[in-house]
Every structure is written in C-alpha cells, then in structure tokens.
Amino acid sequence: MKALLFFGLLLPLFVKGQELVLRGDTAEASNLTLTIHTDCWPEENTWKITDEWNDEIYSGGPYPGVILDEIIVAMWLETGTYTFTFYDAAGDGLFGTQWGNLCAANGSILLQDAGGNVQLDYDGSFNFDSLTVTFTFDESVGIHEIDPSPVVKLYPNPASDIVFIEMEWNRREPLVHLEVFGTDGRLWLRKDIASIDGHSVLSTLDIGHLPSGLYLVTTRNQSFSNTQKLIRH
Question: Which domains are assigned to the chain?
Fold first, then answer.
C-alpha cells in the first residue's frame, strides 16, 4: 500500500490532523516532495517544515499502523529559506534492523525538489532523535510547462466573484482541464475548456461562493501544464 499525502493538487480521501491523505498520481503543482519509508514503529515519527521566521509551514505524523510502507507528501513552497526536521520519539531513527527479529527492514527519508535537487537523503543506517536540514529554496523549480503555449491569463487577480480565463493557442490543442484547489488540497472547482485553433479563448469562472484565501488554478492537457495562484478577496 502507498499512502499519498498531498498538500496541493489531489482529490482527498480523508483528513487526518493537519495532513490531507490522498491517493493518485502526484500533481504538477508540487515543487517539493517528501518520501518516507517507515520502519516498524511509525507511530514514533513526526516532522515539520518551518520558514526563516520559524513559522510552521507543513507538518506530519505520527503514522500509527503504516508499518514498513511508503508515504509520499507533495508540497508547494515559495522562494525562501526553510528548515526541515524529522523526529523519532524513541531516539533510534529509522534504524529498525538493529533490533533483530523485531523489525525486518530500515526506513528512509528523501526530501527532493521538482528539479531533482536532494535536500535530505537518510538511509536508515544510524540512530537519531531529530534530524534537521536547512535549505534555500527557489519556487521556480516547481514550474512544469511542457509546452509554453497556450498562454494562460487570469484576471482580475485578486478577485471576489468572476474571474476571466484567457487562453491563446498557436495551434489546436486537446481539451484543457481547469481545476481550482485550496492550499489544503481540496478541489473546489473543475471545468473543461475547448481550444479554437489560432484564436484566444475567453472563459469565466465564478468564485463568489469560495471562502477568502489563496487558491491554485491548474490548466492542463496532454501537452502542457500551467499552475497559477489566485487570491479570493
């Protein structure tokens, strides 16, 4: 079993504490991924990411019952300096095999951005009660535009009710799927937009019923993906 915990753009199965537990493929809008392979005592493990002002941005765990399994947490970070800390309450890290027959395998921790840069790679070969790494992050590593066209514009932004979505194609594209997600991963809106070869397409989106806050608007099809931030007043 694989547990996917996505702070961004996937459909939720259920909410557990501060985590959104999901299932499916990771989405284009994540630019930082945490992969945890648990040992035999995942209930001992928690983690957090804090910014340069020591404000907690993301956190997770403990994971009771997720023994010798894979947990994937997909996140979005803005440019800045962050600190990732992983805790083990027993002080033995994910070094499970040191306990002989009590645990068949070690765990591991991999923190990696969308550009393939590894911030932390722990292989479960030593003990720790906390493991900390501080890193400088560039949010541009999370931009995955496979094809620069169509050009996608959202306006006004911020907005309180109607948002215009303007797309300009240089050629005919397959149907474009538009989805609006909250920062907690909840899908709020979805619509499909058809392309017209060589023309701009103007569509509208009514966000008047959405709570005020920050949203991520994803437009994608088989040949491109684009994610933009949208603020609802």
Answer: 2-142 (no CATH), 151-232 (2.60.40.3080)
